[in-house]
Inverse folding.
C-alpha cells in the first residue's frame, strides 16, 4: 500500500464541517480519556457542541468536570465503510475548551442549522467551545482536487 | 425527554461486538487525548486492534508510544443517524492496553473473520490488546429485551 500524504488543514476543515457526528475526548481525574459522541458545528476554526436536553440533575456531566480540570480536548470525525476501505478517512482537532452557558449567536445558529431536531428544540447549554489550534487528518486515498 | 437507564454490560458487549469501527483514545505526553478510528474484535472481554499495513518507517505510531507511557485507554463505538435521534446509542470500554507483536490465534481469527479485507491480508501487527475492566453505554431509547 502506498503512503498517502496527510490531509492539509483546509481539507480537514472541509471534511469536519460536513461530518454529522464526532467523538469528543476529555481527560478524567485518573489521567485517562473519556469519550462521548457529540453533535457540533464548526465556524471558522471554532467548534461548538452542546449538552443536550438532559434532566437537570444529570446536566452536570463528567465531560464538563473534566474540562474544568484539563481543558485540552480532542475531537475526531471519521468515515468508515465495510465496502470500500479506499474511502476511509478521519480528521482530528485539538484545542483548549471552555464551558459557557451562553455563546455568540452566530455559533449557536450554525449548530441549530446543522441538525433538524434543534430547529424545534435548540440546545439550552451549557456549551463547550473549542478554538482549534491543530488539525490533523488522513485519508486512505488522496483527496481529489 | 425522559431519562433512560444506562446500558448494562451485556448490552454494551453486544452492541460493541456488532459495531464496525471504534474510536481509540490514548493519552499523549502532554496529558491530552489522541484519537484514531480502529477496526477491532471483541472476544469475551478482550478487545484486539491491529496496526494495519503501513510502510515500515511509519509503523512506530504515536498510539503505541502513548500506550507505553500510559496504558489506560478507552474505546467508543456509537450509532448516529440524522433521521432518528431516538435510535442514537454509544458504548464505551475502558481498560489497560498492552502492545504485542503476537497474539493468541483465537483473537486474531476473530479480527480477520470480522473484516473481509483481512481475509487476503491479515494484519501483521503490532497489536493492541485491551482487557476491558469497565463498560458504559447509553441509548436514547431503552433497549428492547
Amino acid at each position: 500500500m502506498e503512503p498517502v500524504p496527510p490531509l492539509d488543514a483546509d481539507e480537514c476543515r472541509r471534511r469536519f464541517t460536513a461530518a454529522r457526528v464526532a467523538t469528543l475526548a476529555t481527560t478524567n481525574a485518573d489521567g485517562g480519556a473519556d469519550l462521548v459522541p457529540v453533535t457540533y458545528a464548526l465556524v471558522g476554526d471554532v467548534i461548538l457542541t452542546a449538552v443536550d436536553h438532559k434532566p437537570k440533575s444529570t446536566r452536570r456531566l463528567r465531560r464538563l468536570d473534566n474540562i474544568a480540570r484539563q481543558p485540552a480536548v480532542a475531537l475526531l470525525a471519521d468515515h468508515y465503510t465495510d465496502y470500500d476501505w479506499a474511502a476511509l478517512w478521519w480528521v482530528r482537532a485539538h484545542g483548549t475548551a471552555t464551558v459557557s452557558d451562553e455563546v455568540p449567536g452566530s455559533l449557536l445558529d450554525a449548530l441549530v442549522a446543522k441538525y433538524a431536531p434543534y430547529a424545534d428544540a435548540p440546545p439550552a447549554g451549557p456549551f463547550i467551545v473549542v478554538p482549534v489550534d491543530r488539525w490533523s487528518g488522513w485519508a486512505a486515498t488522496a483527496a481529489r482536487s
Q: What stands out?
A: The first strand of chain A starts at residue 22 and ends at 27. Chain A has a mean pLDDT of 89.
